[in-house]
Design brief:
Blueprint (H helix, E strand, L loop, with lengths): L43 H28 L3 E5 L2 E17 L2 E5 L4 E6 L6 E2 L4 E5 L2 H29 L5 H26 L2 E3 L4 E5 L7 E2 L4 E6 L4 E8 L11 E5 L8 E8 L9 E7 L11 E17 L5 E2 L10 E7 L2 E6 L1 E5 L4 E5 L7 E2 L10 E2 L1 E3 L1
Parallel strand pairs: 1-23
Antiparallel strand pairs: 1-21, 2-11, 2-15, 3-10, 4-6, 4-9, 5-8, 6-7, 8-10, 11-14, 12-13, 12-15, 13-14, 15-20, 16-17, 17-18, 18-22, 19-20
Helix pairs in contact: 2-3
Length: 388
């Protein structure tokens, strides 16, 4: 019977000593009666040590990547200023008005008998618009006419008596004066009677009629507002801080919400010399060309051109930032230039501004590289990476 073979001891290492392998099992089927060796499995301690090494390597790689992502400077898009035309304009709100208009009223206090025109009706010069109660005026005219008839009779009789040398010339002169006064009274009464017929002074459209038949109106009350549909003008209220820059004949661009994307060209035709103290504005008028499609009473946006430059330095509006507002207006303007890998706050003077570009009057040159859209909180000398 063969003795089991023993495995010699392993040399000592820094790792824990492995347990001795079991004795080789004798195969009952082996004809020679030899023994087979079973290889020992990988020790559990070695597997744990390898897992810790891999985990530490993964953590070190993740930390390095995170540090690189959070510690490196932010990447910001940059732009370069360009040259182009710039129009500097003053903005105001205006209203479309008729150049020829009138308020038609009465000079007497009486009752309205009839109205011959309504709002929106077209009327012509000389057309009767209303009839007022004129019974008292007719009676006054009748009385004046009766006095005139009597004066005519007295004058004729005195003339006959003077011819017969019965009356003196002085008495004839008094009769003539009385007759003339009676005639003047008839003329005044007839003119007063005409005031009870309300007549249109111009061709136009009835814009407003604030009264109704049967109402009693006071003297100087307005019965109709009439306006000619053409020509038209825009009346804009310009802030007193900008009025000194407006000139007669200046170009005007008029825009109405009823016609989006369309600008109507006009010119300044009148600048009122006296402003409104309540609103601190001055009225500026600009005549409109014919066939604009604008209607009387429309509210419009008005841009009055005060300066025009053909080769202005321009940047997008997103590149400009402002300091805190002062006195109701934006604070000082600035941009961020990219110099030596840092964003440098650069004060600039602005000129004309529009939806796609803003003019830079001073503070920049054509070769400057600017942050296209500075993020909130960007400070001077912050390290950044520019991306064209």
């Amino acid at each position: 019977m063969a003795q089991p073979t023993t495995t010699p001891p392993r040399p000592q290492t820094g790792l824990p000593a492995a347990a001795p392998p079991p004795a080789a099992a004798q195969s009952e089927d082996s004809p020679s009666g030899g023994s087979l060796m079973v290889l020992p499995p990988t020790p559990p301690a070695r597997r744990r040590w390898l897992a810790w090494v891999l985990a530490l390597a993964a953590l070190a790689g993740a930390g390095t990547l995170g540090w690189w992502q959070f510690a490196r400077p932010p990447t910001l898009a940059t732009i370069v200023p360009w040259r182009g035309p710039a129009l500097e304009a003053v903005y105001a709100t205006g209203v479309v008005e008729a150049i020829d208009s009138a308020r038609v009223g009465t000079t007497v206090a009486t009752r309205i008998l009839a109205l011959a025109a309504d709002e929106g009706d077209r009327v012509h010069a000389g057309q009767q618009l209303a009839q007022l109660d004129d019974r008292q005026a007719r009676q006054r005219l009748a009385d004046a006419q009766a006095r005139l008839d009597l004066a005519d009779q007295e004058l004729a009789r005195d003339q006959a008596l003077v011819a017969q040398a019965v009356r003196s010339q002085q008495q004839l002169q008094r009769s003539q004066q009385a007759r003339d006064a009676a005639a003047a009274a008839v003329e005044i009464a007839a003119r007063q009677l005409e005031e009870y017929r309300i007549i249109s002074p111009l061709d136009g459209i009835v814009m407003k009629r604030p009264v109704q038949p049967g109402e009693t109106v006071a003297a100087n009350a307005t019965l109709f507002e009439i306006a000619a549909p053409a020509p038209l003008r825009v009346a804009a209220d310009v802030d007193e801080r900008d009025i000194a820059r407006i000139r007669m004949g200046a170009r005007v661009a008029v825009r109405a919400e009823a016609f989006p994307g369309r600008a109507i060209a006009a010119q300044v035709t009148n600048i009122r010399g006296r402003g409104e103290t309540a609103t601190r504005t001055f009225r500026v008028e600009a005549d409109l060309p014919p066939d604009t499609g604008l209607l009387i009473g429309m509210t419009v946006d008005v841009n009055l051109v005060v300066a025009e430059r053909e080769n202005a330095l321009l940047v997008p509006p997103t590149a400009v930032r402002h300091a805190s507002p002062q006195g109701g207006r934006p604070g000082a303007a600035h941009v961020f230039r990219l110099l030596d890998g840092r964003a440098r706050l650069t004060p600039v003077e602005l000129g004309a501004s529009g939806p796609t570009a803003i003019e830079i009057r001073s503070g920049l040159d054509d070769a400057a590289s600017l942050v296209a859209d500075p993020p909130a909180g960007l400070e001077d000398r912050t390290a950044v990476i520019g991306a064209p």
